[in-house]
Each structure stands twice: as structure tokens, then as C-alpha cells.
Predict the structure.
Amino acid sequence: MANVWIESYGCSASFADSEIISGMILNGGHKLVKNIEDSDLNVIVTCSVKDATFNKMINRIKKLKNKPLVVAGCLPKTEKNTIEKFAIDASLLGPNSLMKTNEIINSTLNGKKQIELHDLDKTKLNLPKIRLNPAIGIIEIGKGCMNQCTFCQTKISKGDLYSYRIGDIVRQVKNEISDGCKEIWLTSTDNGCYGFDIGCDLPMLINTITDIQNDFMIRIGMMNPMHVPKICNDLIKSYEDKKVFKFIHIPVQSGNNNVLKDMKRGHTSEIFMDVVKKLRDKFHRFTISTDIIVGFPTESEEQFLDTIKLIKKIKPDIINLSKYSRRRGTKSFNLEQINDNEIKRRSRIAYKVANELSLENNNKWIGWKGEVLFDENTDRGLRGRNFAYKPILIKDHTAKVGQTANVKITHATCHCLIAEIN
């Protein structure tokens, strides 16, 4: 038996992989340790979506290679040579090769490097797992996507769309609930195209899950705008169920249609705005989260300002801002790049606007009273979510993770709401 340290980065799908890797390690007879100093072997589940994240991954790999090391997640498939440049002896485990976890752990412990990057996993459902948060069940509903975005390495890492069967997903949901989970996160590379390859869709999945007779909430993960029009009406009906958080993560990336075309996003800014309008027309309060990229190689100053105009018009609750990252293997890699200082300048402008809009939206919640489901202890207090998935912090309390309570919002920041037990 060996002591294993595991650390994870990236999206919710990456954390879902980390939970499965942890579960398989335990099932393989090894022990997970809480202090890295106690480990015999280190595992890092990586993300490669941004330059800043990539650089952090490389720095962590350098520090973790002082012991036998397994590098898992997206980076091994997209940056294999770079990993080996800094950690030649590290074993590599791809995001669709989790069934090889124990084999690669044992091989690495015995001093033999092993590389498993082929797509071996038919499904990642109903496998052993160790939850990062006992109140949250992260369920991957499929892998890969139908998109051809010119800036994204994720397609290189995770491949084409492969949706999991609704019945298998429902069994996983029931297992999570029976283990005490109060939030179910449905995640994948792109939830918007879920089921298109197997004759179903996301609304059908949501409706089947909400039929489960238990007390829980569903957070629907990221969906790209190009697929939403096909399912929009049925999706809105699915959101009517009280078990579904009134929250959508729908990345627009740019407010200029020519840039979107160069990105091969498959949607226009008008499609994005139409989806947002339909959701807000239907629901009194609905949290809109989006992503934007500044400094894409073909983005002019005027086109950048189109993005600023768009977000000022839509006023999303959450804007995940990224400076364009030149990722190896992507179609935009060889384009003439915008000067780094110019990208930083645009980023500062967008960041300021994003924070102003978030604060403006959050201030509208001051005085709201209602039920909150607490899902995480943080350094700032106990954090919960209301029906619109707004992050709400309370400090003086006796509540615990997994419990609900009625609160009153008293203050707001651009990142969260502050409340007291009502």
C-alpha cells in the first residue's frame, strides 16, 4: 500500500475525473493523504485551457516530480512533449483513460514510466469516486463536443461528442442522492449538444432527473450558444421545475460576429442575446454567466469594443474573462498575434466593466429573503446558493453544509452576496 497525494485543476469535468481517480486509487488498495509531505506518489489532474493555467501546471509538475509522479487530465494529450521536457520520468494518464488508473499507479510506484492516452473509457458513470465536497455530486453526462473552435485545446484532448445514456446517468444521480448529496452538477465539455449523437437531448435528461422523488437541486453546466436554439423552448420548460437552479453558463466569447466566425464558434451575438432574452422574459430572476476572450488574433479595437457594448447591454451576472491564449495544436496558433501589452490593456477595460456589472446585478438582491442551500465552508464563512444559484455567505451561524435555512441579504460585492439568518 502506498500513500498518494492528488491535486486537481480546471473545470467541473476535470474535478469529476479527479474524484474517480481518487476512488480507483482507494479501491486499488492505496491511501489518499492530506499532506503532500506524507506521499509516496503524487498525482496532478491538469488543465490546459489558458496560458496562466498552463504555466501553473508546469510549475506544479516541476515541484511534484521529486517523487514518483502521474500527470493526468487534459495536459498529457495536448502538451505531452512539454511535460516530458520538465518531468521525463512522469507517467501520463489521459482524460479518457481512467480505467488504467491503478495500473499506471502501480507501474509508476515500481519505477516504470507508463503512458495511457488512448480513449479507453466507454463511460465514466457509476465508477468508484471520492467526492471533493460531500454535498455536491458531480456527474459527467458525456465527453467531447461537436465544436471546431479555433482557439481551444479541449477538443484535441477530449475528442468528438460521446453522450452517456440517460438511464446510466439517472442511476448515478440516485447514487449521489442516496449518499447525501444535495446538489447535482451535470457537466461535460458542452452540455448544449448532449444527446445529439444518441437520439435525445439535454431537456429530456433534465426532465428525467427531476422526476426522481428526492430533495435535491440540479446545476446545469456550460452549454455553447450554437446548440441552444435547437433545444431552447424545451430547455426553458425544463428550467421551470423547482429542482433546477435558475442559472445558465453560456459563453459568448465575443460581441463581434466576424470574430466569432474566425473563432468558428458557430453562433452570432444575436443568437446569444436571443437565448438570454427568452430566459429573462420567462423567469423574474435568472443568473446569466458567460465567458469572453479578449485579444483573439483577428480582433480589432473596434471589434473589441463590440464585446464591451454587448456585455453592457446584456449585463450578465458573471463574466469569466480570459486573455487570448495561444495554444499549441489549435488553428489560431499560427495566426499573427496581438501584442501582449495591447491584450492586457483590453483585459483591464473588460475586467473593470465586468466587475461593475456584477456589482450592479448583485445590489439588486439586497433585502431579498428566501431559502439557501449551504454547500461549502470557506475562509470567509459558510457559503450557500439560492434558487438562482447566487453565492451567499453567512458568518454567524449554526448551519452546516448540506442544510438549508432562510436568510436575508444585507450586503453585496461583485463576487457574492452577504446574508444573515432570517
